Amino acid sequence: MTGGTEPTMSGPDDHTPRTPGWTCGTCGADWPCATKRARLLEEYGLDRATLSVYLGSCLAAASQDLRASPGGLLQDRFIGWLPRPRRGH
Ligand SMILES: [Zn+2]
């Protein structure tokens, strides 16, 4: 890693979503792109609940913008990639 982990709200390398297409503004992949996913996991760490809430609000906004896409597909794209918390039972 390169160090320098200060949070920057808007950099050219920020991988923020570009609306209304919800593609990554940095790499052009469907958002959240692989890089952004890795960063979110890093950023939120164990606080998966907050991350889910954040992604849920992104999903809600994206489903307004991408009404042509099936909801299940979007849900899979925005939330389905999250590692499932292990539940003992
Ligand atoms: Zn990206």
Task: Write up what this structure looks like.
It is a single chain. The chain has a domain at 47-80. 42% of the residues lie in helices and 4% in strands. It contains three helices and two strands; from the N terminus they run ββααα. A two-stranded antiparallel sheet has the order 1-2. Helix 2 packs antiparallel against helix 3 (71-78). Zinc ion binds next to helix 1.
Report a brief summary of the structure.
The protein is mainly alpha-helical and 89 residues long. It is built from three helices and two strands; from the N terminus they run ββααα.
Radius of gyration, taken over Cα atoms and rounded to an integer in Å: 14 Å
Helix content: 40-55%
Total beta strand runs: 2
Structural class, from helix and strand content?
mainly alpha
What structural keywords apply?
89 residues, two-stranded antiparallel sheet, 3 helices, binds zinc ion
Topology:
Elements: E1 17-18, E2 23-24, H1 34-44, H2 48-65, H3 71-78
Antiparallel strand pairs: 1-2
The structure holds zinc ion.
The site of zinc ion has 8 residues, from α1.
